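User: Please fill in residues for this 687-position structure.
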């Protein structure tokens, strides 16, 4: 729902807060596109509006927002400096104490300061599609305008603490069940306001004066400690909310505000806020802004394996018609079954309705005849990682598709220039590197060839954003941004295992930093054979950089190719219980060292982390030096979205700046000394 306010003062030049008084009723409209954030001029406007409705003696004031949403929060771009006056808590206290009671009339996403604003109003009514949340923790913050103290007084301590600590929004129906809403409506908000006023309930006691029941938050605390994975804000949000049970509103709010302001200066919050804006700017490259993306309706996917099926499912979820192509009918049926399994899972988990599942099935077809792709607007191949096979697919697609349509390869390592070389209409080819599982992972690396047109890039970015993905532009190199850094990461991990660290100690050290999986756990999960094939390719081409450790190769030769392999073993033993350390592997590693006469060194946990991070940061800087990534934030987005690098650390580049480049330089010197000739130094590390 979008609200267009029918006042003479609506439109781009309308005041940010507009007041229309009709008889004894006021309509106060916030108009601060795109999301009606509570910027300083909105806070001032609200104060002025408040005075006007009180002076006019209005019996009620309905507070609405124009555009696509009610207030989606405080203005994050203001958080870097001291907050300008008036401060939000004062504005909200004034609204709560106003002689004219306010009705918050909501639609869209009522988040953070938006929800705090609604809680300060006497009544709250909302369109049924509205969502409500306190997402501050996602920015390393807690609410700063009474949210942690008013919400428990309205919906109870446990529910409020959960909302504040996990940052996840709830639906209007749920929020109504919690007791957060006086009315849920479907349709015209003005009609809803009129009927609500006709049977106006007695003005309730101010939220801030209501008592709070105590609640046992022990289980919630344990849950949040686990899910926060090193991020500070969730537990602080929980504990601050819990103050509502024991402290008067004013005292709880004072502590909340101070904590909020302190957190604004924390490295975690700065990291998360930078990622918030970066994930929006990186996905909309400036040079493409003036280009209108071509519409995409029909998507063709070639290859119905795990990746192809995931991309197909993501495209169906975005409302596209999807044709899945395979080499024969049998493979097409297998691909179809994979897509169906994803739809069925989404349905079973309640993520989608029966109608949506049916619509997706109806929009999907699979087969072996490429002419079915003739009117596709984009084709994405996700076949075996072999340049000849991929070229053959591109040739067939280019024959049947219009030269205006996009043809993309989902290669992880191969050069899209070589896959499309010499084909007609070179501007339409590109790489679109999805991450597995593609229906869930948000990152997509967008790889232009030397000939890819800006029109193609603009359409590709818009298409990926439309799938709910985070597209990041990358130049061509082995592994693009993400996997190239991953290779450096694994290389240094292997060097430490070769020289004395246990692979399990390496994994544990990286957990300590906040990585969900260590490098060896990750290999077991994705399968050792992929990187093995890749190493063989690099060795054959003579492009392997420096020292070569072949312990993983030995595991592969023994059939230990990871969790999904027949042996159900890799670096770990997964036969009985997934992820069990295996003394056989440890013994093998020791024997490997002895055979090579390597004297076992000891690495502390800190040394393991610093040395791995030095390899990562060096590679990231090389990528920047070579122009493969357009900015340091692009690299941070790739590693936080695609590889599980903790968002509260901001990504490897932000982490490096915070840690201090001198410290990393020392660690880089140590890895150079450990494996001479194995590392090309980025400009910042050149001595
Ligand atoms: N402040 C400033 N800019 C914001 C903003 C905000 N709160 N929210 C969005 N934008 C910008 C965004 O950068 C982008 O700009 C444009 O709006 C559209 O956003 C005081 C401390 C609301 C669900 O964390 O979750 O309240 O790139 O592309 O996909 O106690 O934006 O176009 O120039 O994301 O439709 C709490 C954050 C703040 C909500 C809409 N609130 N926003 O999604 O559009 S802290 C949030 C969102 C706070 C108080 C506390 C989403 C959205 P540009 P978009 P969208």
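Assistant: Residues filled in for all 687 positions:
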């Amino acid at each position: 729902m979008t609200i267009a306010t029918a006042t003479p003062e609506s439109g781009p030049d309308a005041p940010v807060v507009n007041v229309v008084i009709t008889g004894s009723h006021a309509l106060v409209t916030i108009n601060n596109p795109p999301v009606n954030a509570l910027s300083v001029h909105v806070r001032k406007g609200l104060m002025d509006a408040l005075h006007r409705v009180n002076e006019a003696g209005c019996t009620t004031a309905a507070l609405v927002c124009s555009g696509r949403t009610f207030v989606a929060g405080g203005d994050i771009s203001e958080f870097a400096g001291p907050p300008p006056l008036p401060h939000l808590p004062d504005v909200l206290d004034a609204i709560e104490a106003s002689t004219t009671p306010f009705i918050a009339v909501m639609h869209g996403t009522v988040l953070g300061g938006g929800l705090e604003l609604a809680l300060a109003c006497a009544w709250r009514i909302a369109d049924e599609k509205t969502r409500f949340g306190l997402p501050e923790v996602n920015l390393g913050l807690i609410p700063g305008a009474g949210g942690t103290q008013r919400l428990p007084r309205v919906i109870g301590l446990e529910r409020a603490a959960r909302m504040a600590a996990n940052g996840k929004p709830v639906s209007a129906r749920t929020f109504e069940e919690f007791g957060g809403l006086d009315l849920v409506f479907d349709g015209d908000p003005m009609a809803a306001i009129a009927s609500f006023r006709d049977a106006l309930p007695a003005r309730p006691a101010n939220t801030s004066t209501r008592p709070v029941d105590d609640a046992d938050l022990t289980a919630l605390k344990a849950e949040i400690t686990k899910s926060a994975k090193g991020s500070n804000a969730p537990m602080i949000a929980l504990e601050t909310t819990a103050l509502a049970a024991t402290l008067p509103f004013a005292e709880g709010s004072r502590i909340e505000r101070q904590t909020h302001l302190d957190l604004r200066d924390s490295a975690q919050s700065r990291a998360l806020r930078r990622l918030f804006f970066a994930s929006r700017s990186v996905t909309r490259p400036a040079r493409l802004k003036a280009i209108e993306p071509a519409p995409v309706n029909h998507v063709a996917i070639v290859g119905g394996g795990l990746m192809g099926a995931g991309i197909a499912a993501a495209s169906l979820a975005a409302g596209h018609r999807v044709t899945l192509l395979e080499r024969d009918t049998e493979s097409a049926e297998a691909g179809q079954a994979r897509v169906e399994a994803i739809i069925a899972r989404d349905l079973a988990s309640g993520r989608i309705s029966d109608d949506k599942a049916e619509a997706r099935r109806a929009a999907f077809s699979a087969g072996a005849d490429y002419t079915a792709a003739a009117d596709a607007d984009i084709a994405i191949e996700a076949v075996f990682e072999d340049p000849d096979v991929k070229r053959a697919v591109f040739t067939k697609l280019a024959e049947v598709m219009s030269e205006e349509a996009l043809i993309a390869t989902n290669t992880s390592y191969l050069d899209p220039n070589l896959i499309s070389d010499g084909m007609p209409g070179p501007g339409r080819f590109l790489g679109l590197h999805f991450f597995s599982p593609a229906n869930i992972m948000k990152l997509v690396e967008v790889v232009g060839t030397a000939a890819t047109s800006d029109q193609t890039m603009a359409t590709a970015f818009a298409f990926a954003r439309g799938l709910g993905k985070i597209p990041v532009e990358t130049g061509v190199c082995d592994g693009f941004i993400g996997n190239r850094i991953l290779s450096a990461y694994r290389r240094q991990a292997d060097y430490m295992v070769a020289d004395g660290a246990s692979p399990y100690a390496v994994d544990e050290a990286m957990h300590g930093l906040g990585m969900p999986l260590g490098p060896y756990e990750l290999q077991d999960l994705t399968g050792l054979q992929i990187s093995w094939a890749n190493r063989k390719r690099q060795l054959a081409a003579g492009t392997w950089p420096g020292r070569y450790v072949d312990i993983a190769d030995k595991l592969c030769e023994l059939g230990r190719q990871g969790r999904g392999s027949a042996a159900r073993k890799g670096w770990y033993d997964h036969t009985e219980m997934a992820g069990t350390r295996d003394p056989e592997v440890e013994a093998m590693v020791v024997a490997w060292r002895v055979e090579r006469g390597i004297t076992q060194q000891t690495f502390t946990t800190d040394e393991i982390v610093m040395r791995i991070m030095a390899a990562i940061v060096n590679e990231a800087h090389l990528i920047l030096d070579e122009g493969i990534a357009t900015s340091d934030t692009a690299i941070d987005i790739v590693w936080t979205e695609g590889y599980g690098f903790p968002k509260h650390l901001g990504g490897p580049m932000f982490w490096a700046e915070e840690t201090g480049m001198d410290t990393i330089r020392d660690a880089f010197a140590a890895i150079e000394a450990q494996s001479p000739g194995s590392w090309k130094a980025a400009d910042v590390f050149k001595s």
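For context: The radius of gyration is 28 Å.
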